[in-house]
Amino acid sequence: MAEFYSALAAWADGVRQLPLAHPELLAWWALLTRLLFPILALAMLVQVIRSLVRAAPRPEVWARLALPNGAVQLLTHWENILGRSDSCDLVLNYPVVSRQHAALIRAEDDSWTVHDLGSKSGTAVNGVPVPPQGAPVAMGDVLSLGGVETVLLPLAEDQVPRAPGGDVKPVSPWGSLLLLTLFQLLAAAHFLVFGPEGANLRCAACLLALTGLMWLYFAAMRCAGRVGFEMETVAFFLSTLSLAVTASSAPAALPKQLAAVILGVILLLVLGVFLRDLGRVRKIRWLMAAGAVGLLSLSLLAGTEKYGAANWISLGGLSFQPSELAKLCYIFAGAATLDRLFRKRNLGLFILLTGLCTGCLALMSDFGTAAIFFVTFLVIAYLRSGDFATLSLICGGAVFGALTLVSIKPYILRRFAAWGHVWEQASGAGFQQTRTMSAAASGGLIGVGPGEGWLHNVAAADTDLVFGMVCEEWGLIIAVLAVLCVLALAVFAVRCCRAGRSSFYTIAACAAASLLVFQLTLNVLGSVDILPLTGVTFPFVSNGGSSMLASWGILAFLKAADTRTGASFAAPAPRLRRPQWSRLNASGKEAAHEKD
Amino acid sequence: MKKIEKRALICLVLVFALLAGLALFLVRFLVYGAQWAAFPANRHLYASTGTLAVGRVLDRDGDVLSWVDESGTRQYYANAMVRAATLHAVGDPAGAIGTSALAAFADLLSGYNLLTGADNPFGQGRDLYLTLDARLNYIAYQALNGKKGAVGVYNYETGEILCMMSSPSFDPADPPDIQEGDERYDGVYLNRFLSSTFVPGSIFKTVTLAAAIEQLPDLFDRTFTCTGSVTIGGETITCPHAHGEMDIGGALASSCNGVFAQLALELGADTLEQYAQKAGLTDRYSVDGISTAAGSLSLEGCTDAQLGWAGVGQHNDLVNPCAMMVWMGAVANGGKAAVPRLILKTEGGLPTLPRLTSRTGRLIETDTAQALADLMARAVEETYGADRFPNMDVCAKSGTAEVGGGKAPSAWFAGFLRNEDAPYAFVVLVEEGGSGADTAGTVAAKVLDALVNGY
Q1: In chain B, which residues have their Cβ closer than 8 Å to the Cβ of A526?
Q2: pLDDT given at position A47
């Protein structure tokens, strides 16, 4: 190994001597790679983005419901609302049935429970009225909604557990993987030859290590029979940019950033597997809520200030931002307070949690993250309640609170005073934004080349202004692709709702996607003076361990909502106990009567 | 679940918000990219001292006024006086002169292109040809002889500025250490021609006269008598000496304050302001994107005496030399002149669109312009001496503007040539220059002689 290392170093030195002999050769090579990077990125990402945006998972079938008219309807979610209204999952068009009559909910062990949603005519199972806490429904049981009798049935033996329709398969990952590998190898070679003196080997090694990690992940997942890799491709691409940006701005921090990616992938796996079981999720939601508040109050109490926001904790030489991990806990807790979803629109506890979180962040002067929490809250709360009036009230309250805060601490506004006219205050409050735009323009479409920029000399260039750094060194095409990748994740989350198993997965995925998108909005548009500069990170790309870790963690929520056949490790194919079901099916009626 | 599916569309609202913001950024990137890249903090294009490290500036004859040598250091023309004479047009190493080519046209010099940005692999920087002739600047600088002031000459048909000189100046190859409050370098970073305004004195009488020609139908039948002073509103407005009996042409030729003060009074403050505005003297011009300073005429609530003084270019009147030059061009050109411009062409890098001449609005009616030009030609014959301007059909007006503060008056000389092959308008300002016709007139004569008659 040592021999290989010294041979590599000698080779790199030899290549470094080349420009002395043939300067034009190296210039051509640099130009060629500069042109190749955007082409490779386009080739691998356009396909991935298209696959994410067009994904139309077919709903999975979990059971059937026989109606009095002889028709058999499919239950395609773990939570189904039965009623007369068109917005119900299963429409029962009988006058006696209320608009939203009952909720039929599947548990992890394939048992079903029915809850009456305050219907006028009542709900009964096998003739017994359903009590307020709900009643179990076994296969073959007669579920009566105000006298309209239906029967819960398992899947027929020959039935495919998917709703009918064309199957849109996830795009094959290998093409993108190869292109991304080539991208990383070219970047590693570029850093090896042109990289910062003394750190060029480290830069190249870290990029190659990322390639290794990526192949390991893909190989392991493929062995486990998984086929959907679009999200991971996006995440690995953005992580590559992150390592490149870090190599350019702070080569010493590169191993730390690589470690964060590795930990991030582990977190994705752990969290993804954990999310498989809704029961587990429900059990620890209080812990997660406490975690969110705990992490934020920890940084409020023990935090040190960096770049105007006191949200850093230092532990034994390592500093991290608890607010990044709090985002994970918050989505978890916000999406999981759900078992009463269909009966109670009470958002009280969730509002309290949000108030505590944003309050802590506002006290830390971290208004960007506070805004991210608030927007995530709005998305979750709207998905849960659909109640515009209440949310408008809350928005009004938030505006009032913000105004109060500003009137108490007027200096806060000063940070945003340059917004819209940064060029007039180019050496004052608009310092960072003007540099970002100037550097971004310098990059043109293809960039000046990795490590060749100057924006990294500006404070927070590799975090808050990282969009500018990517524009400068990698070019506008790659920077825009990076943004579009994240947007594609959000569109994917919305499209997955149709085939969502449980509202938890749907809401968590939408919340996670909204969080990523809004954070990206603040980062990108803030750095180029379209929005005020608030100092939040670019998911996956910004240099910083906590942010990287949180971004990979958030990806788990999206993976869990991906119900395309065999696509996601976090949403395994249903294990239906079919033999038992078919027995029940044959003697369904009798079994039900025996129970009586 | 179906409900949540519909509500999830709210996520798309966020997606579209970011897409819209990104689109706005892309549009701005396309439109302003070159300017962003030309920002002096951009280390791809500027040395750490703020010097633009790419691009050459040339004059219209191809004389290279500034370039970057092998070591990346910016160099300037070999002759020290040419360097000083073209300082405000070309620029200083620190980038302190914001209206200079190296600062204001950095986006053109940088060789910026959308594909490779500021880092062009096929050679950095472009050649920017100015419309100026460095020789005329040199002559103007020499003629000014160390005095502060400004000289401008341009072709009123094409808009090309042939001479643009501002003084005080310094040698950009060896910039002096300028202390705050040093009288010698007062306002040295301003191009007086583009960015300053001054009391016009008698050259403003051209505006008062244009108004009188149109508003007072019997003007040319009138006879005026000057006794050396006239009392208006209890104040005395004086002439250097009694001009005696004369018609309006004689009044302009002898620059009689009494006559023009009374004309201003007769016209009224509103009319005077209106004509100054129409003449473009209170507006800004965009000289290839460089905004000139706007003059002003504050007549609100003024007394009769003040209005009288305003009519002869005193009181609070302020004009910008460049705007005055364009006004002269419009009188020469029948009412509309070309808007001045400084960039002849750029070479190297991607081809650029040809630069078109744009014209001003109507600054003066054609008949009025004709009449005014004839009177100004008479002033040259009677007062300034046509023989000072060989081979030239000169129309001009001098000005000797009192500036107060114990300073000697500013000398002005503004006008134009009516020669078909020499359609030039000019303006000369010499601060503390004394008599306009003598001091400024001599500077104008030297520059025009070089321009029209060669060496």
Answers
A1: none
A2: 86
Q: Bridge partners of B400?
A: B411
Please give the full DSSP string across A540-554, using - where no structure is assigned.
TTSS-HHHHHHHHHH
Q: Give me the pLDDT at residue A592, please.
A: 39
Residues in chain B with CB shorter than 8 Å from the CB of A79 are 1
- For residue B10, the chain A residue with the least C-alpha distance is A379
**Contact between chains at A520 and B117 (C-beta distance less than 8 A):** no
How far is the C-alpha of A66 from the C-alpha of A64, rounded, in Å? 7
User: Which segment of A102-111, B12-21, B234-243 scores lowest on mean pLDDT?
Assistant: B234-243
Residue A307: pLDDT band (50, 70, 90) is low
Q: Tell me the Cα Rg of chain B.
A: 25
**Does B11 contact A at CB distance below 8 Å?**
yes
Contacting residues for B42 by C-beta, under 8 A, at least 6 apart: A438, A439, A442, A454, B118
Q: Search chain A and give the residue with CA nearest B120.
A: A448
Work out how many CB contacts closer than 8 A connect A with B.
164
User: Which tokens is A67 given?
Assistant: 């109606």
Higher-pLDDT residue of A516 and A584 is: A516
User: What is the rounded average pLDDT for all residues in chain A?
Assistant: 85
* Identity at A103, one-letter amino acid code: A
Residues of B in contact with A434 (CB under 8 A): 39, 41
User: Whole-angstrom Cα distance, residue A250 to residue A449?
Assistant: 16
In chain B, where are the structural domains located?
Answer: 194-453
Contact at 8 Å (CB) between A517 and A490?
yes
Q: How far apart are CA A515 and CA A50, in angstroms?
A: 21
What confidence category does residue A174 fall into, taking pLDDT thresholds of 50, 70 and 90?
confident
Are B12 and A491 a contacting pair at CB < 8 A? yes
Supply the ipTM of this predicted assembly. 0.89
CB-CB: which of B2, B15, B115 is closest to A445? Answer: B115
Q: Of the spans A164-178, A577-591, B152-166, which averages the highest pLDDT? A: B152-166
A379: exposed, middle or buried (C-beta count within 10 Å: 0-12, 13-18, 19+)? buried
Q: Are the CB atoms for A430 and A422 separated by under 8 Å? A: yes
Environment class of B420 (CB within 10 Å of its CB; exposed 0-12, middle 13-18, buried 19+): exposed
Q: Once rounded to an integer, what is the mean pLDDT over residues B335-363?
A: 83
Contact B285, B339 (CB under 8 A): yes
In the block, residue with structure tokens 């914001």: B98
**Axis-axis angle for helices A322-336, A285-302 (nearest 10):** 150
Look up tokens 């999206």; give the residue: A558
Q: What does residue A228 show for φ and ψ, rounded to 5 degrees?
A: -95, 120
Q: A115 vs A565, which has greater pLDDT?
A: A115
For residue B166, give every residue at least 6 positions away whose Cβ sits within 8 Å of its Cβ, in sequence order, or none: B87, B88, B149, B150, B190, B191, B192, B193, B194
Which of B11, B29, B45, B113 is most worth mutating to test chain A (most A CB atoms within 10 A of its CB)? B11
Q: How confident is the model at residue A278 (pLDDT cuts 50, 70, 90)?
A: confident
User: At residue A588, does pLDDT exceed 80?
Assistant: no
Residues B84 and B104: their CA atoms lie apart, in Å, by: 18
Nearest C-alpha of chain B: how many angstroms from A497?
A: 5
Q: Which region holds residue B214: left if phi is over 0, alpha if psi is between -120 and 50, else beta?
A: alpha
Tokens of A596: 């009586």
Tell which CATH architecture fits domain B194-453: 3-Layer(aba) Sandwich (3.40)
Are the CB atoms for B334 and B425 separated by under 8 Å? no
Distance CA A411, CA B176 (A): 41
Tell which residue, B150, B142, B155, B178, has the closest CA to residue B89.
B150
CA distance B75 to B66: 5
Distance from CA of A445 to the nearest CA of B (A): 5
